[in-house]
TrEMBL record, chain A:
<dbReference type="GO" id="GO:0046872">
    <property type="term" value="F:metal ion binding"/>
</dbReference>
<keyword id="KW-0408">Iron</keyword>
<keyword id="KW-0411">Iron-sulfur</keyword>
<protein>
    <submittedName>
        <fullName>R-phenyllactate dehydratase activator</fullName>
        <ecNumber>3.-.-.-</ecNumber>
    </submittedName>
</protein>
<keyword id="KW-0479">Metal-binding</keyword>
<dbReference type="InterPro" id="IPR043129">
    <property type="entry name" value="ATPase_NBD"/>
</dbReference>
<dbReference type="GO" id="GO:0016787">
    <property type="term" value="F:hydrolase activity"/>
</dbReference>
<dbReference type="GO" id="GO:0051536">
    <property type="term" value="F:iron-sulfur cluster binding"/>
</dbReference>
<comment type="subunit">
    <text>Homodimer.</text>
</comment>
TrEMBL record, chain B:
<dbReference type="Pfam" id="PF06050">
    <property type="entry name" value="HGD-D"/>
</dbReference>
<dbReference type="GO" id="GO:0016836">
    <property type="term" value="F:hydro-lyase activity"/>
</dbReference>
<keyword id="KW-0408">Iron</keyword>
<keyword id="KW-0479">Metal-binding</keyword>
<keyword id="KW-0411">Iron-sulfur</keyword>
<protein>
    <submittedName>
        <fullName>R-phenyllactate dehydratase subunit alpha</fullName>
        <ecNumber>4.2.1.-</ecNumber>
    </submittedName>
</protein>
<dbReference type="GO" id="GO:0051536">
    <property type="term" value="F:iron-sulfur cluster binding"/>
</dbReference>
<dbReference type="InterPro" id="IPR010327">
    <property type="entry name" value="FldB/FldC_alpha/beta"/>
</dbReference>
<comment type="similarity">
    <text>Belongs to the FldB/FldC dehydratase alpha/beta subunit family.</text>
</comment>
């Protein structure tokens, strides 16, 4: 029996996945904080408890995400680029393109037939087109970020959002609310703006079908729908897209044991 | 303690501006550098530094007519006239190390110089207005490769009330283009001599071209040695010599530094002294690098063993100059730059570098001010993909450290390295 764990320390959430012989045995998602090491450890413990596995049984741990360097107990540190690729390859080996939209960045990853990263592109350092962008807008609109997807799908059209700067877009959103535009249309407009930006990134890297989406924003059906419209293709979303990076990390830890 | 730390330590605060104009400062600086001679891992780097200090001293102490030039203007003309060349764009990079960049950026911002403009020129502007640069007697600039330089340098000439000479470089490389550029070079040369009261000295002019040819030969030797496996010099160390490509050709000093570098490289190659303990990958670096401290090269070369074995900026793209036809051959040099004209020329040159230096991957540092040229990257990306050479476009800024995001940069570089290992 091989037990490995993957930890994905993102800017908004920390994810832990424990796999036993290639099958997910436990997974948790927690809010990230300033004490990365402590949160990583707590996430790992929670995932192990869920799996009913003792920490002494863990054969390998791989850390990923921006906080990966702050996990001293991880055996290896691997970027989320490679981890998301590995996670998706495990679920759907035929996928050629992975779109990952996380809290503070978005990436488009091109895979070869063996699941290796062939090329990738990431957003520039501003928050445009990321989970943080949507979170700030949700706060301005006084809606729950989890509700945004369903709300936008109900809107007949999207409001035009011209700025992708988080600060300027927020003031634009406030103005639209003041003008009386329905909140659902504003949200749809935001999703379309995010999707257009990510689709441009996908073009940069030369995306290919089939396409899968990972990261917390993949839970937002409105963004996924807008991206599908922009790319003109269906996008596969795993049951829990937020943990795919951590799953990939756990799989890479298992790979290194072979 | 590196040279910049030394200067910051000894010439801190308001003293610094006055120190630039004091001969004692340069004597002191050379003594400080000389005292640390043994700490330089490359004697060529030590010599380059001493020569650069001399060149900077000549400009600040006005030891001859100072002529500002952009980094693509053929400096052989300036050395050939016995002038003191000074490149504000190169000075901007030095300003970062000297710790005056933040002040200079604030000065530029206060003068409505847009933060969207090239940071090299913005920084040079701020340094100039803050009194950090030696006043020019004239300003020369070529129009090729950099769109911002002609406007920036023309503005500087206007500010200092000195003549400005623009070398208009067409995108074609045919005979008419060579004649067009050659005529301008001749006109600029004699106009400069007239304006600055410099007597025309044919022998001196030809010597500058011969010195350029000698430097070229030694640089070719350096480049040949850098093709060997394992690499004997890290890209981090080699990058410093790019300064000569931008401001040194036509000087005896450039030839001497390259000769020294070639000799040291050859010796290290014979002794099999490796640049890094284990060479795991070989990289080609396109464009420039950040001039403020970053972990980029440490991460690539020291941590990952991915050595930058060659820089695009060190590519010898031109044929030897003909001292009997100085302007015609300098025009040929200007027009043969691989970055000029159609993108396919640059791609062809880069693919030749990929082969010659046996690289496993290519990194392009997309400096903010030069991003007008990044539209061509799609073509480059496709060409490299056809050859299955991994490519990373690393967005950043060479001189504005406020634009640097360490975490994001590390993720891109590590992702790229993981991709290289997977190939």
């Amino acid at each position: 029996m091989t037990v490995t764990a993957g930890l994905d320390l993102g800017s908004l959430t920390t994810k832990a996945v424990v796999i036993r012989d290639g099958v997910i045995a436990g997974s948790v998602v927690m809010k990230s904080g300033v004490q990365s090491e402590d949160i990583a450890w707590r996430a790992l413990k929670a995932a192990l408890d869920q799996a009913g596995i003792g920490e002494e049984q863990v054969d390998g741990i791989v850390a990923t995400g921006y906080g990966r360097v702050r996990v001293p107990f991880a055996h290896h540190k691997v970027t989320e680029i490679t981890c998301h690729a590995r996670g998706i390859y495990h679920l759907w080996p035929e996928v050629a393109t992975v779109i990952d939209i996380g809290g503070q960045d978005s990436k488009v990853i091109l895979l070869d037939r063996g699941g290796k990263v062939r090329d990738f592109v990431m957003n520039e350092k501003c928050a445009a087109g990321t989970g943080r962008f949507l979170e700030v807008m949700a706060r301005s609109l006084e809606v729950n970020v989890e509700e945004m997807g369903e709300l936008s799908l109900a809107a007949p059209r999207g409001a035009s959002i011209s700025s992708m700067c988080t600060v300027f877009a927020e003031s634009e959103v406030v103005s639209l609310v003041a003008e009386g535009r329905p909140v659902a249309e504003i949200i749809r407009g935001l999703h379309e703006a995010v999707a257009q930006r990510v689709a441009a990134m996908a073009s940069r890297v030369g995306w290919e079908e089939p396409v899968a989406m990972t990261g917390g924003v993949a839970k937002n059906r409105g963004v996924v729908k807008s991206l599908e419209d922009n790319l003109g293709t269906a996008i596969r979303v795993p049951p829990d897209p937020q943990i795919i990076g951590a799953l990939g990390a756990a799989l890479l830890a298992a790979d290194s044991k072979k | 303690m590196d040279i910049y730390q030394l200067i910051r330590f000894h010439l801190a605060g308001p003293l610094r501006r006055r120190a630039f104009k004091s001969p004692w400062a340069y004597r002191l600086l050379k003594q400080l550098v000389a005292a640390q001679k043994k700490r330089y891992s490359w004697q060529a780097a030590y010599e380059l530094l001493l020569n650069t200090i001399d060149q900077v001293a000549a400009a600040y102490l006005q030891q001859g007519p100072v002529v500002w030039h952009n980094v693509f203007f053929p400096t052989e003309i300036l050395y050939g006239l016995g002038l003191v060349p000074f490149a504000p764009e190169a000075a901007a990079a030095v300003a970062v190390g000297l710790g005056v960049a933040e002040e200079a950026f604030r000065v530029a911002e206060g003068d409505w110089v847009s933060g969207e403009s090239c940071s090299f020129h913005r920084l040079a502007y701020g340094c100039d207005r803050a009194g950090y640069l030696p006043p020019p007697g004239a300003v020369v600039c070529s129009s090729h490769l950099c769109d911002a330089a002609p406007q920036s340098l023309a503005a500087a000439a206007g500010y200092h009330h000195v003549p400005f000479y623009l070398l208009d470089v067409p995108h074609r490389q045919d005979a008419a283009a060579i004649n067009y550029v050659a005529r301008q070079l001749k006109s600029i040369t004699f106009s400069l001599a007239d304006a600055l009261g410099v007597p025309w000295d044919q022998e001196r002019f030809q010597e500058a071209l011969l010195a350029s040819n000698t430097a070229r030969e030694h640089l070719l030797a350096v480049n040949r040695l850098r093709r060997q496996r394992p690499a004997c010099i890290r890209g981090d160390e080699a990058h410093g010599f790019i300064y000569l490509m931008l401001a040194g050709f036509g000087s005896e000093a450039a030839a001497a530094v390259y000769r020294q570098l070639a000799a040291e490289l050859e010796q290290r190659w014979r002794e099999q002294r490796r640049a890094v303990p284990e060479e795991r990958a070989r990289l080609l670096w396109l464009h420039l690098r950040p001039y403020y401290p970053t972990e980029i090269f440490n991460l690539l070369e020291q941590e990952a063993g991915a050595v930058v074995v060659f820089e695009e900026m060190h590519h010898v793209y031109w044929e030897p100059l003909d001292p009997a036809r100085p302007f015609y051959s300098l025009a040929g040099k200007v027009l043969s730059h691989h970055g000029l004209g159609c993108m396919s020329r640059r791609i062809e040159a880069i693919l030749a570098m990929v082969d010659a230096y046996q690289v496993d991957g290519v990194i392009h540092f997309a400096h903010w001010g030069c991003r007008q040229s990044t539209a061509g990257l799609r073509l480059l990306q496709d060409a490299l993909r056809d050859r299955e050479i991994p490519f990373l476009n690393l967005e950043g800024d060479c001189v504005d450290k406020s634009k640097y995001a360490p975490g994001a940069t590390r993720t891109r570089l590590e992702g790229f390295l993981e991709m290289l290992r997977a190939v």
